[in-house]
Amino acid sequence: MKTESETLFEKLCSEKRIPFEPIPTEENLRTPDYRIWLNTTEIIVEVKQMELNKDDLKFIENVAKGIDVPNGFRGTGHIRIRNIIDDAYPQLKNFAKDLHPSIVVACDLTKGLSHLDNEDILNAMYGDEIVIISDTSKDSEEVSAANHKFGGNRKVTKRTKRSLSAVALLDFNESDEAVRMTVFHNIHAKIPLDPRGAWKIADQQFTLQYGSEFYQYWLEITQHE
How confident is residue 69, by pLDDT bands cut at 50, 70 and 90? Predict the structure, then answer.
């Protein structure tokens, strides 16, 4: 039985006239969900959905009961995306075999309770934001940023998860019933996803401008690039 996120992904492919094929499941073997074709390029796709967790459900219950809830929340979007990448990667690697690009597609069904945004994807893929502070003078209270870089908990590096070409977010807008996809490229991928072909399915695309050691924000790819 298809999940809600798989149904939305198939809707997106159908609306954009992207050929797709569900990958048959095999006993004792974890398989990705789909093959799709962007122009003549075969892409291996795993679709994951982010659902309400125990904390989300407790929050909803407390609101319904009129119980006071904290004014702020600890964002968990980056943690959930890291878990999704870890879970999806083995079957993507096994089927892509470094011959085809592969994508993990995440669909947020928490209605915003995951607090997921583009920066969460950045930190999940390339690492936490680290700022190293140094004194400008021994006699001064002024400090400056000596280094601004990506830190720990990175899921894609020059040596790890290089069979993953991109992470994508699938979004469903209830007001116009439109499904949209945003693609975030892995600059370390052995088989990169060609942005020119990806425009057939993507509404937005992002990448990094430099090597991933120096902290930077997403650079949006435009359609004429």
Answer: low
Instruction: Say which amino acid occupies 25.
Output: T
- Residue 110 structural domain: 4-135+142-221
Average pLDDT over residues 82-88: 96
What three-state secondary structure class fits 44? Answer: strand
How many domains does the chain fold into?
1
Give the span between the Cα atoms of 85 and 188, in whole angstroms.
15
Residues 6 or more apart in contact with residue 90 via CB below 8 angstroms: 30
